[in-house]
Amino acid sequence: MPEKTFKMLQINEKWCKGCGICVAFCPKDVLDIKSGKVIIKDIDACIKCGQCELRCPDYAIYLGGEDNEK
Amino acid sequence: MPSQLINNYFRTNSLPHIWCPGCGNGIVTRSIVEAIDNLNLDRDKVCIVSGIGCSSRASGYLDFNTLHTTHGRALTFATGIKMAKPGLEVIVITGDGDCSAIGGNHLIHASRRNINITTIVYNNNIYGMTGGQYSPTTPKGDKGTTAPYGSIDTDFDLCNLTAGAGATYVGRATVFNPKLIVKLIENGIKNKGFSFIEAVTTCPTYYGRKNKKGSAVDMMRYLKDNSINIETAKKLEDNKLKDKIIVGELYKNIRPEYTDEYNKIVDSF
Lengths: 70, 269
Ligand SMILES: Cc1ncc(C[n+]2csc(CCOP(=O)(O)OP(=O)(O)O)c2C)c(N)n1
Ligand code: SF4
Ligand code: SF4
Ligand code: SF4
Ligand SMILES: [Mg+2]
Fold this sequence. Notes:
With about 70 residues, chain A is an alpha+beta fold. Chain A has helices spanning about 20-25, 50-55, and strands spanning about 10, 30-35, 35-40, 60-65. The radius of gyration of chain A is 12 Å and the shape is globular. Chains A and B meet through helix 1, helix 2 and strand 4 of A and helix 2 and helix 10 of B. The complex binds thiamine diphosphate, iron/sulfur cluster (3 copies) and magnesium ion (MG). Thiamine diphosphate binds next to helix 5 of chain B.
């Protein structure tokens, strides 16, 4: 079995406190804040760099699951 | 569902945590478990000890042997644990107030003894939990509730302090660059002796508000724009380094470790 390395961007809305850190430092402008919570604005632009996951203080956004498409 | 890393190492039923929106504490805490995961440590051989403060709440969220102790005394409990069970990987989570004001004495002596403990200080330059009193690391001139006109005390450089007192691995990184925090913690855990990692973090609620530092994002951007790696810093003139945050591996040394020395005495009888 080949290793599945390409993961999908996941959001755990319940834990998001809307701080905007992931939005501000995403290199591809994928994210936004709407009604105090993070939203995915442009998933096609996501390069799966994981910076949002590393800097989210609330573990509310991450690359996870399985996806072999991109 | 949180990520696998969070699921594996956090007590997820206690999440979301109590920290304010944009508080850097969550970033440091995630970095600690990433370092532990990278090193493949046996969870039952890890003991995480914290003092009191917003930062010290971290131990309660982590699924290891954990001990949430009293203000300033994390290192004393940790020293007891390490002496009794030298095989445990003892990791201390502390705040700038916790480790350098009330607990400053313990910090210098743990460094001097070179006891094999890895200490991570969440340095937010303030007493967060109690409402924004200035701490020994509040930059001179900055404000706190107890320094309404600006602090006149010279702030501590905790890395210089611990290196000077005898720690054998010392490094600093900011929450803007969690990868560096992870690397320093890994190396700190691997070092057989006292390791001190300063994680420069953000308290938008008190330090930020008192000092007009803007939003959580603004404070992160400040860390990004004002950090200089030690290797780059070595090539720059002093005036270019004024008010900059020097990050990276700052100090390394090899010296006898405390529990080893103690057990030599025990074994001599
Ligand atoms: C013996 C004792 N003195 C004072 C306090 C009150 N107190 C609780 S946390 C704290 C300071 C916390 O500052 P820091 O260690 O920097 O942690 P932070 O909240 O900023 O993460 C103080 C003074 C206490 N709990 N116990
Ligand atoms: S993985 Fe990278 S590109 Fe994708 S949303 Fe996160 S920060 Fe942006
Ligand atoms: S960094 Fe985390 S908590 Fe902050 S807005 Fe993004 S997902 Fe929400
Ligand atoms: S008071 Fe400051 S340190 Fe404490 S949780 Fe809020 S932002 Fe974080
Ligand atoms: Mg503090």
